[in-house]
Amino acid sequence: MARETLTDEADIRYKRSTDIQVAGMLIYYILSGGHHPFGDKLFECEYNIHKGLYTLDHVEDMVAKDFIEWMINKEPESRPTVEECLSHPFFWTTKRRVYYLRRTGNREEASNCRNADPELIRSIEQYARDGSFRQWKNKFSSELVQKMDGKKRPYPEHILGLLRFIRNLHDH
Fold first, then answer.
1. 11 pLDDT higher than 70
2. Residues 6 or more apart in contact with residue 141 via CB below 8 angstroms
3. pLDDT of amino acid 132
4. Average pLDDT in the 134-149 region?
5. Segments of the chain assigned E as strands
6. HSE (CB half, 13 Å, CA atoms) of 110?
7. I need a labelling partner for 76 at 20 to 30 A (CA). Which of 5, 52, 91, 135 fits?
């Protein structure tokens, strides 16, 4: 049940945002293998829905977590519309995701990745709380990294370096 339906009022007005919150809970349930974002025990679940207390620990995908978090927002007016849900990167094809990363890697900030402002890097990487962008070179074959790094100026191991690496990998 959505937060706004957990009241003592006899006449509950269901809205699109009510369905969005429940859909977010269902997506989490499916992706987590049967867990509820607001708790697996009924007495805890309703309390947590009411208070807006949740955990997304059973899902690792950061894009999915972002999507679910938006959908299960405590405040109905802060939840996305159906159209916004369908345009979220969670539903993007691999081709569209790569295109987006290539375009982002073409921005001035990424093209200047070797001399980037450390505060800019920190502000971008704060969203990857788990540090998933650090040591990104270990995710690629060493041969590919050596070929792309060249001998003079290797890509830095931060998010802007990764974006520029992806852009150059696909464009050159």
1. no
2. none
3. 67
4. 87
5. none
6. 18
7. 91
Cα 6 to Cα 47, 51, 79, 106, 168, distances in angstroms: 9, 11, 17, 48, 52
Considering the entire predicted model, what is its pTM?
0.76
* DSSP structure class, residue 78: G
Query: Cβ contacts of residue 2 below 8 Å, gap of 6+?
Result: 17, 18, 19, 21, 22, 49, 76
Architecture of domain 3-91: Orthogonal Bundle (1.10)
Confidence label for 53 from pLDDT (cuts 50, 70 and 90) = very high
Domain boundary assignment for the chain: 3-91, 94-171
What span, in angstroms and rounded, lies between the C-alpha atoms of 65 and 71? 10
